[in-house]
Specification:
By secondary structure, the protein is mainly alpha-helical. The protein has a two-stranded antiparallel sheet with strand order 1-2. A two-stranded antiparallel sheet has the order 3-4. The two termini are 41 Å apart.
């Protein structure tokens, strides 16, 4: 039998080199960690003369630098800005839907399901999409384009909705599924393009959600007041089509792939050896991610509603949400950069502590717009950029195994999706909608919500202490 060489990528966590392991087609077993297999239908292009290549190979774009790496980072940031920035804007729509026909007869809890459904689906979908892309890498770009088309159509069709369940199906379920599909490959290819600066690059990319969350509420708030929700959704669909259509041209894998000439079985959906995913680090991060998101999303969805109790005008609610999101842009970049140089549990602890203090001490006593604005900025800065620690935490768990790193990020996204759904539901049940009294602490029926948010942030900082212990123990063993 003729021997065909397959190449599979293995990325060093802290170094700058991308190593290649070369195996023959006759090899039919995986390595213990499942990272190398002779069962892949696809193979990477053979750039090296001896069948090997690394980050210094002139035939490949450089890692961590160069025009193409920058193009990937900026293009992915645009996707993040529009997709997740749009998700961060739903608080403005919720405030509008609850106060304007044809949806104002529904409860705020029912209307909040639209936003939480979209968020939850996108986060949960990331884990599935990561596994799908690793198994069928040649379908990644077609899926991205198809997902974009469906997302655009879902917004256009939802502009004709007359019932809340129409919005839940179109703006929630269908948009969530399609947007998650065309965004997920970014998380897989990030590990190919960036190694030493992975945290910083991830901070820039993820910071797009805060940038979009700053700009889009201002634009959407203006449009909602001027042309109503129907034309606002149609205009947003056009923005999504143009900006993301251009951005998709720059979001590509660093290492091209092509079909094998032999019909070989594909890589399994999950690695054979899942020992790295049974790490205490992963369990601890999943717990931290759960409690952090349970406290984060109620603020992003309900802070415009809280602001509307202080002012009947639309602009203050819009400014509050914009401040909340733009503050996260700074924290994404700073958190990501710090994680490249210092232990990431420190960042987790600071994020939780700052969020808890702002919830208990600023939001609890917020009885004027100025204090609400301050809370939005402070809480957004400490809590909004939390996902910037994902690349560092995933690398700590997976080491040099990119497929484990990507799956770990998918797990982080999954628990954040759980928080995106459950957190607002809990907050809605704690909010006393019939209490409009201004009190010394926790006014306008939000006292229990504020205590819940602060408690979840406190649990985040406590979890960081355990995370630091497990991370230090792992470093000592290695």
């Amino acid at each position: 039998m003729a021997t065909e060489v397959l190449e599979l990528k293995e990325t060093s966590t802290f170094g700058s080199l991308h190593k290649r392991d070369i195996i023959d087609i006759d090899q039919t077993r995986q390595t213990p960690d499942g990272s190398i297999t002779g069962h892949d239908l696809l193979k990477y292009e053979n750039f090296g003369e001896n069948g090997t290549t690394d980050a210094s190979d002139a035939r490949l774009p450089p890692v961590d630098e160069g025009r193409q790496a920058v193009l990937f980072c900026l293009s992915a940031c645009v996707l993040e800005t529009v997709v997740w920035g749009w998700n961060n804007t739903y608080g403005i729509f919720q405030d509008y839907y609850t106060s304007h026909p044809p949806f104002n007869a529904s409860t705020s809890a029912a209307i909040s399901v639209v936003g939480t459904t979209s968020l939850g689906i996108q986060y949960f979908e990331i884990l599935v999409m990561v596994a799908f892309i690793q198994r069928y890498p040649e379908y990644a770009k077609p899926v991205m384009w198809i997902g974009l088309v469906i997302a655009v159509l879902s917004l256009v069709i939802s502009s004709f909705a007359n019932k809340v369940w129409h919005l839940i199906l179109l703006q929630g379920v269908i948009f969530g599924l399609s947007a998650g599909a065309f965004y997920a490959p970014v998380l897989v290819w990030l590990s190919e393009w960036f190694v030493r600066r992975r945290g910083f690059a991830g901070g820039i990319i993820f910071g797009g959600s805060g940038l979009g969350g700053f700009v889009l509420p201002l634009v959407m708030g203006y449009l909602l007041e001027g042309v109503g929700f129907r034309w606002t959704l149609r205009i947003m669909a056009a923005i999504l089509a143009v900006t993301c259509g251009i951005a998709l041209l720059g979001v590509n894998p660093r290492i091209p792939i092509r079909k094998s000439t032999m019909p070989l079985p594909r890589q399994p959906w999950l690695p054979t050896d899942l020992s790295h995913l049974r790490s205490p680090l992963l369990y601890c991060m999943l717990w931290i991610g759960t409690v952090q998101s349970l406290g984060y999303f109620p603020v992003s969805l309900f802070i415009p509603t809280y602001t509307s109790t202080l002012s009947s005008a639309t602009l203050p609610s819009t400014i509050t949400l914009a401040l909340f999101n733009v503050a996260s842009v700074i924290s994404y970049v700073v958190f990501g950069r710090v994680c490249d140089s210092y232990p990431y549990p420190y960042v987790v602890f600071a994020s939780g502590l700052g969020s808890a203090l702002s919830a208990f001490l600023i939001w609890g006593f917020a009885s004027s717009l100025g204090v609400v604005f301050a809370f939005s900025a402070v809480f957004g800065a400490f809590s909004g950029g939390f996902a910037a620690i994902w690349p560092a935490a995933a690398s700590d768990i997976g080491g040099s195994r990119d497929h484990i790193t990507s799956l770990a990020i998918g797990c982080f996204a999954g628990v954040k999706g759980l928080g995106a759904i459950v957190g607002p539901i809990i907050a809605a049940s704690l909010h006393d909608e019939g209490d409009y009294a201004q009190t010394a602490y926790g006014g306008y029926g939000f006292r229990d919500v504020e205590i819940f948010v602060g408690s979840m942030a406190t649990a985040t900082s406590i979890g960081a202490l355990f995370l630091a212990y497990f991370s230090a123990s792992k470093r000592k063993r290695s």
